[in-house]
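Data availability (excerpt). The following record was deposited with the supplementary files.
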Amino acid sequence: MAPPRAPRRGGGEGGAWRAPTRAWRLRPPPRWRAGQEGTEYYLVKWKGWPESSNTWEPQKNLKCPLLLQNFLSDKNEYLSRVKEGKALKVRNHVKALKPAVADYIVRKAKQRIALQRWKEELNRKKNHRGMILVENTVDLEGPPLDFYYINEYKPAPGINVINGITTGCECSDCPAEKCCPKEAGFILAYNKKKKLKIQPGLPIYECNSFCRCGPDCPNRIVQKGTQYSLCIFRTNNGRGWGVKTLQKIKTNSFVMEYVGEVITSEEAERRGQLYDNQGNTYLFDLDYDSDEFTVDAARYGNVSHFVNHSCDPNLQVFNVFIDNLDLRLPRIALFSTRTIKAGEELTFDYQMKGSIDLTSDSADGLSPSRKRIRTVCKCGAVCCRGYLN
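Predicted structure:
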């Protein structure tokens, strides 16, 4: 065939057929229909031109009937030699699942649906940034049956939590001398990068709803809630559920708040006997100033309900005061003690010992209610004390 006026690109190559090649200038064409119904295109190799100049041409453009006839004859002969494949006989194949396996598959599917619904419920109820994911690749445990997600303290009947704040700071620059922490007799808890700068045992006084400063004030951290995406996951060493971060967390960053039902210490003693037998630890005494109240996160709580204990934790507890200055009812905030990698489990020391400044007047800070039955610790840390209490 004569060289083309200029290489042209015709139809596409999808669904095409290619026969064994010979030294023809008309290449064995993939057949492809485009344009008008029934139009056939042929891939042409032009003499003296590289493969990159091949073009798709309709039959009416091909002025080589003998070459085309030979091509079609060879193509038909080739296709006639192609036989249908026969199915292989499979020996010893499983014709039916064993009842135990079938039951597991059904239960796993139901669990997957239940966990998905629970995840959606948690994300509807949370009021903070970041997603909450749920993951269980260990067993068939589903969502807790008697747990209700809340974002702040839930006072038990008979307990009145009154926000006694009626005034706030007049600062335009909150590290000023007369800001909320200074008025309470303490230093500002955060640096310019909004990271914690005080020692454990000291309280945090944040600006409140009556303060003149805006939402970008460097002294408004805990009140903005969790800023990270977290995952509630099933541990593989018998510690039940745990929580891991899906994002890197820098040192001295606020991670989450511990919330639950606020009850009296007397009620905490009664419930504690029940929890002892179950091996659970959800009671925390609000003993910053007195031991009148306790937070119980067994039935009501947030993501922190699932955070496990470690004798070598990466979170530290601090008492926080914002819209309520009642020293009997501090808010409980968890801050990172070091850089935490994405995918790492979050933990805190249920005894809150070690890094707390024991010389501080408020060294007791927040501590779990005392348990009467010793619970074996499974944290696996090198410095593990052996027991949770």
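Summary of structural features: The radius of gyration is 35 Å.
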